[in-house]
């Protein structure tokens, strides 16, 4: 997949975070209070500030935490549809560059990630 760095994926993000995502970002020196919020169901999510992910540098059009970004960000634009099928997010203007092989490979990883996050959220209740 080729990225145009348009930042659409970082606008008003609802990116779910696993415990591992949080751990890696904290280990890299970021305070979890700065980047994690919990929804009413116990899901950890990236915070937004000024309409974008807290890590998105609007001027440079780059992620400030790129090396440590969450797995969901690494797998994007592959997401799960409401029918629990891996698809390419239609919002991504470069989605057409995702091959069928990449969709399949990333789709499996997205499914595994979502199952892990579901278990972690359930344990917070």
Walk me through what this model shows.
This protein is of the alpha+beta class and 125 residues long. The chain has one domain (8-124). The protein is 34% helix and 16% strand. The protein has 4 helices and 8 strands; from the N terminus they run ααββββββαββα. The strands form 4 sheets. It has a two-stranded antiparallel sheet with strand order 1-2. The radius of gyration is 14 Å and the shape is globular. It starts with 18 loop residues before the first helix and ends with a helix.
List strands and helices in order, with pairings:
Blueprint: H1 19-27, H2 32-35, E1 36-38, E2 44-46, E3 48-49, E4 52-53, E5 56-57, E6 62-63, H3 71-75, E7 78-80, E8 86-88, H4 100-124
Antiparallel strand pairs: 1-2, 3-4, 5-6, 7-8
Summarize the structure.
With 125 residues, the chain is an alpha+beta fold. It contains 4 helices and 8 strands, in the order ααββββββαββα.
Low-confidence sequence ranges = none
Rg over CA atoms: 14 Å
Number of strands: 8
- SSE pattern, N- to C-terminal: HHEEEEEEHEEH
Q: Tell me about the largest β-sheet.
A: 2 strands, antiparallel
> Which strand order does the major sheet show?
1-2
The general outline is globular
Our count of domains comes out at 1
> Between the first and last Cα atoms, what is the distance in angstroms?
37 Å
Name the structural class. Answer: alpha+beta
The total count of helices amounts to 4
Overall pLDDT:
94
Helix content: 25-40%
Strand content: 15-25%
């Amino acid at each position: 997949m080729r990225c145009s760095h348009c930042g659409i994926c970082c606008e008003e993000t609802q990116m779910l975070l696993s415990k591992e995502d949080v751990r890696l970002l904290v280990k890299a020196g970021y305070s979890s209070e700065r980047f994690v919020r919990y929804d009413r169901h116990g899901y950890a999510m990236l915070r937004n500030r000024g309409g974008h992910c807290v890590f998105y540098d609007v001027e440079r059009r780059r992620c400030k935490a790129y090396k440590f970004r969450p797995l969901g960000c690494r797998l994007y634009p592959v997401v799960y549809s409401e029918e629990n099928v891996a698809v390419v997010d239609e919002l991504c203007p470069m989605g057409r560059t995702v091959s069928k092989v990449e969709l399949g490979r990333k789709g499996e990883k997205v499914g595994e990630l979502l199952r892990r996050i579901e278990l972690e959220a359930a344990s917070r209740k």
